[in-house]
Amino acid sequence: MRDRGITRVARALPRMSWAPKNLYNLFQRTVHKKNNKYREITFDTGRTLFQERWASKAVVRAYHGDYINEKIFKQWYLPDYLPDVRPRRKVLGDDNVSLQEFAKRRQKEKEQEQEEKSKGLAPIGSLMFAEVERRLDVLIFRCCFAHSVYEARRLVVHGNVLLNGKRHYNANTRLAPGDMFSVKPSAMRLLRPQKTEGESDNVIDHPDAPAGLTPFNLPFYASPWLFVPAYLEVSFPTCSAVYVRHPTARPQYSEIPTPYDADGEVIRNAWEWYMRHRPRKRTETQWSRMPDDRLRRQMEELRLGRNSLRLATSGV
Asked: How far apart are CA 119 and CA 10, in angstroms?
């Protein structure tokens, strides 16, 4: 199995999983400061810059798409650059400055600029994984429909997921804003009756509840993972969700969930590593082998539609 042994305590690499061992690994890496696993990514030792970048890349990739081949990740999921969030000075000409001052907008802009400076710049380092967050299997896990991203991938491959009303089997598909996906309720482990006595210990019986209700069985130690990012609109009664927009960042907040500081040394060193070890160009043959991207497909259809409309109008 692809996900066998991924939560080993000896390695202590946090993954996209609700497993209790994974929570303990997360504790070792981020909270337990006296642990050697935590010291590996604090960079207070005499290691070289190459070793620090390599360690950062290893722990970051273990959480963000560890099942994606490294070559494929660097070629298709790594952005060319991160957005520039540095403040830009506005150059106004003619009498715009006096008009702005008369309308008291200049004072408001200065107050907003001072507030932004006090908060600091947006932590854009985690946006290097924005393409990974668009994957269908990752979004299913973010919606809390599956215990792990590996289980979410199996749900898609086994035909238990609908994308825009049609059965979809490709877990590598990257969604476009506005796409809706739904999971078959009978395939979700959360909505199945417990089979073993150990699992039933986590179930609270309600004798007064009416018969015929759908069971809801939450696994142990799952509460730290029960959150939904801001770029998803989830409907739990229908087991469906809508990918509203791409993830973004603002001062002191990043919408991409990550176990590490969104603007810390680990994310920065990982980005520096990939900037030095990434493919420089893509040929036409490589573009044809790109994983399914609905946003790129929509842009291509829009471009072809504009070209055909231009040709039709030029012929008239």
From this structure: 38
Structure tokens at 81: 């650059």
Q: Return d(Cα 134, Cα 312) in angstroms, integer.
A: 36
Angle formed at CA 125 by CA 296 and CA 295, multiple of 5 degrees = 10
Under the banding of pLDDT at 50, 70 and 90, the label for residue 129 is very high
What per-residue confidence (pLDDT) applies to 197?
57
In 3D space, the residue among 161, 74, 128 whose CA is nearest the CA of residue 247 turns out to be 128
Q: What is the pLDDT of residues 198-236, one digit of tens each?
A: 555 555 555 665 666 677 778 888 888 999 999 999 999
CA diameter of the chain: 78
Q: Are strands 166-167 and 161-163 parallel, antiparallel or unpaired?
A: antiparallel
Taking the domains of the chain in order of start, what are their residue ranges?
Answer: 286-315
Predicted local confidence at residue 205, as pLDDT: 58
Q: Above 50 in pLDDT, residue 55?
A: yes
Q: What is the mean pLDDT of the chain?
A: 81
> How far does the chain reach from its first CA to its final CA, in angstroms?
61
- Do 161 and 143 meet the contact criterion of CB atoms below 8 Å apart? no
Q: Which two tokens stand for residue 41?
A: 């990514």
Rg (CA), the chain: 24
Q: Who wins on pLDDT, 296 or 2?
A: 296
Q: What is the pTM of this model?
A: 0.81
Give the integer Cα–Cα distance in Å for 314 and 316.
5
> What is the CB-side half-sphere exposure of residue 221 using CA atoms within 13 A?
11
Query: Helix or strand or coil: residue 9?
Result: coil
Q: Is 102 exposed, middle or buried (0-12, 13-18, 19+ CB in 10 A)?
A: exposed
Q: Taking a C-beta distance cutoff of 8 angstroms, is the pair 13, 59 a contact? A: yes
